Amino acid sequence: MDVVTFGETMALFQPLGEKNLAHAPLLTRGVAGAESNLAIALARLGKKARWISRLGHDPFGDIVLGAVAGEGVDTSLVARDDAAPTGVFFRQIHPHFGAQVFYFRAGSAASKMSAADVSETWFAGAWHLHVSGITPALSDACREATLAAMNMARSLGLTISFDPNLRRKLWSEKAARETLLAMLPLCDVFLPGHDEAEFLLGPGAPQELSGELLDCGPRLVAMKLGERGALGAAKRGAMTVEFIEAPPFAVEKVVDPIGAGDAFAAGFLAAWLDEMPLEKCLSRANLLGAMATQFQGDWEGLPTLAEVELIEAGRGGVAR
Predict the structure, then answer these.
(1) Residue 213's domain spans which residues?
(2) Residue 108 φ/ψ, nearest 5 degrees
(3) β-bridge partners, 233
(4) Which of 188, 262, 274, 298 is labelled catalytic?
(5) Which of 56, 78, 97, 127 could disulfide-link 85, Cβ–Cβ 3.0 to 4.6 Å?
(6) Cα–Cα distance between 133 and 177 in angstroms, integer?
(7) Would you call 150 helix, strand, or coil by DSSP?
């Protein structure tokens, strides 16, 4: 197993066509969750990924499990809960305000995950753990589970990546800032957006903030800069930091921006685990992030490794 990750994945409902939820007679149904998005993206890139969670014993749980397992992700350690439901959320794209999300996840099965659930079985045969800042926001028990998983993975010699994935609707700014900063020293690779770095440390230029984040404990920071691409910062010796900027992968039109950050993280990690140079890791991350914006849904349009290599080589596929 290359990568282990855990967190909540929910059933997702969106209007069919360009309508808002209040006036859409038909909704499409999918599944989405930051950690499963990443696991699916990694599987398509040829990595072996394990996703761990809790789902209700309900049709939505069946849908989530079938979708994630159907993408080649190991779901053997996903637990089913008879007493708590699978989370559900609704999303609409507003022409002026962008994506608007409405959660129905309070008391969900995934929010019941606790430190007692974390065991060495989670990490059997794995090299790397990926966590996001969404899981500790679900409940106090999930926060303790996240910290326990990071500490256990570190004790077992796994490397750890951490995407803050800030969700202001899930917790207070004070709780978010304190928890995310407490997680920083436990990771090797930190994957924030520029806005998330400013949330944690205050206003600053990307390079300045990346250096400050390295001082908090990670040995590598890959910062998402949106239309400006990405910035990588890595420790090179006790007193030296290397900064590398990677240009964006340009797209003509953004169809759906949701899931781009998870795709960015997957693209980066897949290349990093293959020990590619930092510049290549950032370039691959930018490509995956851009590709995620070209399709409706969080992960459905993500490319395979063969497709990525064709795009990077400037070639299209064989149509017929």
Answers:
(1) 3-306
(2) -70, 165
(3) 221, 243
(4) 262
(5) 56
(6) 10
(7) helix
Confidence at residue 159, expressed as pLDDT on a 0 to 100 scale: 98
Alpha-carbon distance 260 to 191, whole Å?
13
**Does 314 reside within a domain?**
no
Q: Do 291 and 307 touch, CB atoms closer than 8 A?
A: no
Q: Residue 197 has which token pair?
A: 């770095």
* 315 found inside a domain: no
What CATH number does the domain containing 248 carry? 3.40.1190.20
Question: What's the pLDDT tens digit per position in 114-160?
Answer: 999 999 999 999 999 999 999 999 999 999 999 999 999 999 999 99
pLDDT tens by residue, 92-121 = 887 777 778 899 999 999 999 999 999 999
The answer as to whether 207 is a domain residue is yes
- Whether 304 and 297 have beta carbons less than 8 Å apart is answered as no
Instruction: Tell me the two tokens of residue 23.
Output: 């006036």
Amino acid at position 294, single letter: Q
**Residue 314 carries which DSSP code?**
T
Beta strand ranges found along 168-293 (DSSP E)? 189-190, 220-224, 230-235, 241-246
The 8-class DSSP code of residue 74 comes to: B
Tokens representing residue 217 in the block: 């404990």
Helix 305-312, helix 278-292: angle, nearest 10: 110
Number of structural domains in the chain: 1
318 within a domain of the structure (yes/no): no
- Three-class SS state of 248: coil
